[in-house]
């Protein structure tokens, strides 16, 4: 599920600030290469015993990700249910408490990057 109207799409930040800000909120930069990266936040639904991942993609618009001074732009924000053995299902409905937690984290991230 793509999360619209987060205010994050198109925001820019240098890699050092983005890493620091996202880590404060529990995001981890998992997949990355020289020009793009994915940040993930695990959200646990303890009622249904399922895990969801809030994810956002960034792309380098100046420099490469090997430099803390690289400037990155947020491209998209989405959430999916974890599937076994690995992967995300973006088509499944997301419980409202998980969406609320995701929205709160995204608002906090937006404030830290502003």
TrEMBL record:
Pfam families: YugN. It comes from the Bacteria. This is Uncharacterized protein. It comes from Paenibacillus baekrokdamisoli.
């Amino acid at each position: 599920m793509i999360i619209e109207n987060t205010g994050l799409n198109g925001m820019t930040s240098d890699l050092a600030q983005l890493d620091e800000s996202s880590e404060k909120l529990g995001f981890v930069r998992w997949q990355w290469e020289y020009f793009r990266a994915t940040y993930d936040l695990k959200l646990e639904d303890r009622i249904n015993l399922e895990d969801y991942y809030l994810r956002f993609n960034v792309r380098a618009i100046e420099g490469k990700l090997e430099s803390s001074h690289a400037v990155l732009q947020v491209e998209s924000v989405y959430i999916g249910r974890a599937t076994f053995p690995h992967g995300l299902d973006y088509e499944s409905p997301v419980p409202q408490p998980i969406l609320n937690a995701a929205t709160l984290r995204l608002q906090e991230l937006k404030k830290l990057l502003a």
